[in-house]
Write a structure and sequence with these properties.
Layout lengths: L1 E3 L2 H14 L27 E7 L2 E9 L4 E3 L18 H7 L6
Antiparallel strand pairs: 1-4, 2-3, 3-4
């Protein structure tokens, strides 16, 4: 899926995905359910946004920057890896929750 979004919207997607993710395996040792993540907690780099485990939560979020405001995300996701999929069933749903307009 390719879409247009600001860096702030991508950061909001990261925060929403982490908040919706659950701890897995040894991640339980690092999990702090009271932590509320904010978009600014997720700085972006020139390649995009890649989150694996965040404070024990199995996030597995991958968004690649194609150009200034152009992004690419996987077309398919799996609840076995991306635990946020139980709240947002697709990257499109996650993007819309962050205020991104998908055409």
């Amino acid at each position: 899926m390719t879409f247009t979004a600001t860096d702030e919207q991508i950061q909001k997607m990261c925060a929403l995905a982490v908040q919706a993710s659950s701890p897995m395996g040894m991640g339980l040792l690092h999990y702090q359910p009271e932590t509320q993540f904010k978009p600014e907690d997720f700085p972006l780099d020139e390649r995009g946004a890649y989150l694996d485990y965040v404070q024990g939560r199995m996030v597995k979020l991958r968004m690649r920057r194609l150009a200034s405001m152009m992004w690419e995300a996987p077309d398919s996701i799996s609840s076995a890896y991306e635990s946020w999929v139980h709240t947002y069933p697709s990257y499109e749903a996650l993007a819309k929750a962050a205020g991104v307009t998908i055409e």
